[in-house]
Amino acid sequence: MNVPPLIKTAGITKSFPGVLANDHIDFDLFPGEVHTLLGENGAGKTTLMNILYGLYQPDEGHIEVCGQKTRIRSPYDSLKLGIGMVHQHFALIPNLSVLENLVLGFEGGFILNMKDAEKKLKRISEEYGQAIDPHELIQNLSVGERQRTEIIKTLFRGSEALILDEPTSVLTPIEAEELFQTITTLKNAGKGVVLITHKLNEALAISDRISILSLGRKIAELNGDELRSMDEKDATEKILNIMFGGKPIPECSLVEKTISDQVVLKLEDVEVMNSRGVVGLNKVSFEIRGGEIFGIAGVDGNGQKSLCEAIGGQRELVSGRIRFRGEDISRKSVSKRHEMGISYITDDRMNEGCVLDLSLAENAILRGYCQPPYSRFNIIDNTVVDRFANKLIMDFDVKATGPYVRTGTLSGGNIQKFILARGLSTEPGLIICSKPTYGLDARTVNYIQELLLEESKQGTSVLLITSEMDELINCSDRIGVLFNGKIMAILDKCDATPEKIGKLMLGIEE
């Protein structure tokens, strides 16, 4: 290209204790292109982008913005240089309006002119097709609308380069399609977009270039047009061969199994309030039998979190009853339910799933540190704990140098794998899995799905909550669809189609 790149990195290197996250990476982004980053968990994608956004400082290498060598010390510097980032976890204040979130931190003086800010928002919305109510509170927006607000925020602050980290992971198929239209609009307007994703179909559909990272190094750069000229299967295999060194990825196949007649979990007209004090579940009833995978579909925020917490014991029931293996557990504590064989694997890995400042070994025994074999007479047996943590690391291929690595230094995907390993290690009778493959690479996604299927084959019941339609249909024996805290329908596997599920997710009954 004749124009200089919006962003260029040369020899970027970054290490954390025991982990070389980026190893002399060269990367660039030009105006009007989508440059996608692919790589398995722990490959260094998010670390590299966090350096561009000023959250980390590189140990070696330098950054150029529009041809000028520069140092980015903070996100404020990054935004001033025209680089905006939309993270997996949105950075919005729920009880403020859209407009208030846009101007927060960039007021531009002692006097805040909200009228001018609203005019600017209207202009951006019209130019990029991002209609949004400026006065609506963030807490009242859907996930897709919140993401739209994050994108508008970067444009509001003058960003020419936008970094989107796993942007479709929380979106419905319709919202994801709208996002791709937005990315195309941004590209046509001359903006540069960095897309971090694990979804190869997304990368193939929209990328001008694809860079593949592995173990902190950039190992390949592919041309999007050339890949799209190939058969889709061949293009996918080419990328996977580069990412995984030609090793075959295990296919997620249906496991032959028998679902027992025993009802392991039964909800009877369960009603709970959510964290905002409004009804989270409204008279929900269903049952899960031994060896059954019961999938839950729904747009985020329609009661999934309330359902998990009601069964796990974190949220008190307003009315109704929950039975586990015939016993009423409606008033039992979290620890008691865990002892009875209920394992809740949360989707909030950073805040609920672990303590980032503790080591992997300490996180491994958070729920059972006072019980044998981890401790006797209130004295923790570090040898046993180390052995247990190392087994979790090895079994799930967690990229960590050992059990005493601080958990917060791992990538999000590797933290997710460790939490899953811990949750499945207790041989539970019921596994509550909320987005178990969220943010994981293709190899690990297949491994987790096979593992859940194998657990169900052994007689374990699974409540699977996922936003991935293929995963939902491939793994579930039956599927319940949540909308506004109610079960719209329960579909048998043979009756479940993406179209039917999608309509129910939007509250459309046939």
Gist of the model:
This protein has 510 residues and is α/β, with parallel strands linked by helices. The protein is 34% helix and 25% strand.
Number of strands: 22
Tell me roughly what share of residues is in helical segments: 25-40%
- Whole-angstrom Rg: 24 Å
Overall SS class: alpha/beta
Which whole number gives the mean pLDDT?
87
Strands in their spatial order, largest beta sheet: 6-7-8-3-9-10
Structure overview:
This protein is of the alpha/beta class. The protein contains 18 helices and 22 strands. The model is unreliable at 250-254 (pLDDT under 50).
Architecture blueprint of SSEs:
Elements: E1 7-16, E2 19-29, E3 34-38, H1 45-52, E4 60-65, E5 68-70, H2 75-80, E6 83-86, H3 98-103, H4 114-128, H5 143-156, E7 161-165, H6 173-188, E8 192-196, H7 200-206, E9 209-214, E10 217-223, H8 224-228, H9 232-244, E11 263-273, E12 279-289, E13 293-297, H10 304-312, E14 317-324, E15 327-328, H11 334-340, E16 342-345, H12 349-353, H13 360-364, E17 375-376, E18 379-380, H14 382-395, H15 412-424, E19 430-434, H16 442-457, E20 461-465, H17 469-475, E21 478-483, E22 486-492, H18 498-505
Parallel strand pairs: 3-8, 3-9, 6-7, 7-8, 13-20, 13-21, 16-19, 19-20
Antiparallel strand pairs: 1-2, 1-4, 4-5, 9-10, 11-12, 11-14, 14-15, 17-18, 21-22
